[in-house]
Amino acid sequence: MPAGSLEAMFTGIVREVGEVVEVAGDGAGRTLVVAAPGTAPTTEVGDSVAIDGVCLTAETVEGPRLRFHAVAETLARTTLGTLDAGAAVNVEPALRAGEPLGGHIVQGHVDDVGTILSVTEEGGGLRVRIGAGTHVLRYCVEKGSITVDGVSLTVAELHEVAFAVALVPHTLSATTLGTLAPEQRVNLEVDVLAKYVERLLDRR
Q1: Looking at the predicted structure, is the pLDDT value of residue 4 above 50?
Q2: Fewest CB atoms less than 10 Å from the CB: which of 11, 145, 146, 185?
Q3: CA 49 to each of CA 55, 107, 127, 160, 191: distance values in angstroms, whole numbers, following the listed order
Q4: For residue 63, what are the CA distances in angstroms to 33, 56, 189?
């Protein structure tokens, strides 16, 4: 975000599935060019855009293509370092004043990278079990919100080392989650409201 501006906020409602068309750099810093024809026309240089749930700043906008730079910290904490040209990614522009909050409050700050443990067909959709660390699971509750690769989802089950989400057909067709497979890694962001509640209780 430009200096002096408010921090970007997202909702976990994916605007479109974009395509990584160019990748350059290494673990010290990486440039990603994403083709996102639905998002690019309303994006200006300096705007925040979530790519697979990671808040990035648009460095250039050229037609349908958005160019971003991910620093070493971002690459170490997310899956962006594993993306190659041709990869499909979930794209969501930052929430603008007056727009509806369709999912839940998402910051684009990934808390952990989880691992897909199982994917099971269920009623036309999928039930996906995701392994995660205790520092993520401590903020999860059944029927609460969590973001997986930038998609706002509801926790359907909660276990000691994992949680599960139920994906409806629309989510499967409108995001990249329809291609999830065991052992795949995904970006996770917990509901920030849970963190605020914990902080308030600690202060008491």
Answers
A1: no
A2: 185
A3: 6, 11, 28, 33, 19
A4: 12, 18, 30
Query: Which tokens is 11 given?
Result: 């909702």
> Token digits for 48?
């925040």
Report, in angstroms and rounded to the nearest whole number, the Rg of the chain calculated over CA atoms: 17
**Residue 192 binned pLDDT confidence (cut-offs 50, 70, 90):** confident
**138 Cβ partners below 8 Å, 6+ apart?**
none
Please report which confidence band the pLDDT of residue 1 belongs to, taking 50, 70 and 90 as the band edges.
Answer: very low
The pLDDT tens digits for 55-70 are 999 999 999 999 999 9
Q: Which residue has the tokens 């240089």?
A: 45
Q: Of 32-41, 66-75, 98-107, which range is least confident?
A: 98-107
Task: Please give the model's pTM, rounded to 2 decimal places.
Answer: 0.91
Give the span between the Cα atoms of 118 and 108, in whole angstroms.
Answer: 25
Instruction: Give the count of beta carbons closer than 10 Å to the beta carbon of residue 82.
Output: 11
61 and 21 Cβ atoms separated by less than 8 Å: no
How far apart are the C-alpha atoms of 116 and 181, rounded to whole Å? Answer: 7
pLDDT above 50 (res 110): yes
Rounded CA separation 13/99 (Å): 12
- Could you tell me which residues come within 8 angstroms of residue 29 by beta carbon, excluding any fewer than 6 positions away? 69, 70, 71, 72, 75
Residue at token pair 């989802």: 153
